[in-house]
Amino acid sequence: MLFQNFKPSLLTICISAIGFPKKVTKLSKSLVGVANYTKISTLSNQSIIADHLKNHRIDEARTVFDKIPFPDVYQYTKMITGYARNDRFDDALQLFDKMPVKDVVTWNSMIKGCVDVAYLAMARKLFDEMPERSVVSWTTMINGLLQFGRIEEAEGLFYKMPSRDIAAWNSMIHGYCCNGRVEDGLRLFEEMPFRNVISWTSMIGGLDQHGKSEEALILFRQMVGCVKVKPTSSTYCCVVTACANASASYQGVQIHAHILKLGYSFDAYISAALITFYANCKKMEDSLRVFLGKLHMNVVIWTALVTGYGLNCKHEDALKVFREMMKVGVLPNQSSFTSALNSCCGLEALDWGREVHTAAVKLGLESDVFVGNSLIVMYYRCGNLNDGVAIFKKIAKKNTVSWNSVIVGCAQHGYGMWALAFFNKMLRSMVEPDEITFTGLLSACSHSGMLQKGRCLFNYFSENKAVEVKLDHYACMVDILGRSGKLEEAEEFIRNMPVEANSMVWLVLLGACRMHSRLDVAERAAKCIIDLEPHCSSAAYVLLSNLYASASRWGDVSSIRKEMKERGMTKQPGRSWITIKGWRNEFLSGDRSHPSSYRIYQKLEWLGGKMKELGYIPDKRFALHDVEDEQKEVMLSYHSERLAIGFGLISTAEGSTITVMKNLRICGDCHSAIKLIAKIVRREIIVRDSTRFHHFMDGRCSCGDYW
Hints:
By secondary structure, the chain is mainly alpha-helical. The protein has 37 helices and six strands. It has a six-stranded mixed β-sheet with strand order 2-1-3-4-5-6, covered by helices on one side. Helix 5 packs antiparallel against helix 6, helix 12 packs parallel to helix 14 and helix 18 runs parallel beside helix 20. 42% of the residues are buried.
């Protein structure tokens, strides 16, 4: 029979038991009710899990998840993504392995989680194990490889893709640009079958970031001519930045007008880009006008204005803006602090720097690597190396810039052994040195008279192919040899260099000749400089003239000065300055224009008498004019650095440190005099000249009379 092997279902038995059709409606409603309850319960759990994950309550989300009898793929994926986004990668992987069924979205989430925690090997393993892949799978894996600089591997996957959507093309272009291969990015951009606004914006931004700002602007003009693609606010942000970097003032103003028409002017990032654009074009009034267009509470816009003032050497204005942003409640970020501290360096204002440092401590950013690096530089440039070293020790995760900053700081202050000790720690910390490290170490050896260590370091880095030896490094080695009195060896070193020496290298040798009064080598070095650059700066002429003056060859001095006059050259006057209570007080040699001149000269006359009691005899070789000896003494007594020190002594508390800056190298006579002044007044006197810092205390200088 037809129904011989038929077995009744559970539903059939139930219907038979209750009678059909009278009670069937009641049973149906009961079953539907159970189904609806289960559905509502599941939806409720999903909502609770989503809320917990949104608020980073991962364990609470997992508790709710574990109560679901049979979680579906969506719920598993949601939980795995939550783990991954909260750096709980191991938990995400365990839950992924437990999944009975996985769809492509789950695999993609897991791969992205691996990429986010830099577990690239596992991401690739999962990608290779996927039963089937979507375009998103390929793009996620390619993005991960590009993010970690594995360009060739990413290229291989890109060209293996069975089909590519526009997102895949855009990812590859962006990856090329981020890894410095902008030409490859441009080639791929031109090969694209079709482009969207992201394609154009990525390429414009990539060209600009790699010094091709003018090409970026040409590409933007092509984009504007493309009817199907309209620039977005992100596009305009990149274009305005390109105008800033290319100093394309006219084009930037036109784009600004277009931005106003489109209503993009209130976009925070566009406003910041416009402020930077006008600042780069030296139009700070226009930068301020953009800033004042609306009361902004966005830190990016405030930071752009602080940076803009700094770029235009209006450091006091920059620091006033920084103070104002704190006052109105806009919390500075790392970039804000970096810009403010750069302005403190520009003013050599330690008091301002300490104020910015205090703000960083209050916001918990003192140990941040970017803020910390800027603090190190600020302190050593303002004459306080010890505080710079203390900041270095507090930085949680030091990078190459951190190590370079402290090494260069030690070099500038003449603490060569400290610089070498930090270099050894840098190597033990597995941080790779770079060209700046090399320069800092050679400079440290130069300022500390460590000839043999300088030779060893130069040989070490010459053999280390990871660091390219450049002209700056050869110049440092010439300086080491020259300061040590090895002038013939330094000259031979220059002539045997594998690259042709420029005027800067010969100028270093000429400076060493001035130190050791070697006219024969100096004349050859000066000839090489003039042969290389007939219209060179006045530095070579001034150094040679000073050498002749020290040797009392006044006829040669007169000839050089006459030639300088004919060429329209002027000697840069020696200037010294001291910053007290935020005010910079500047002095020239023999200057009497300062309001406190009478008291300054009175103080220096008193010091002159005390110095002679200690056996001081002026070194008249450093009076570079053909006048009587008595007049030479007077000229030496009122050099600009001595006037600045005199002002510091009458304007600051007894026992406090005085810090003076000078634009030229301190002369030998002033160096001897300041050692005695420091001993007489029982203070530390710090003088930064054009080459280094000198710390004078108790009749001694930190340079050991070697500078």
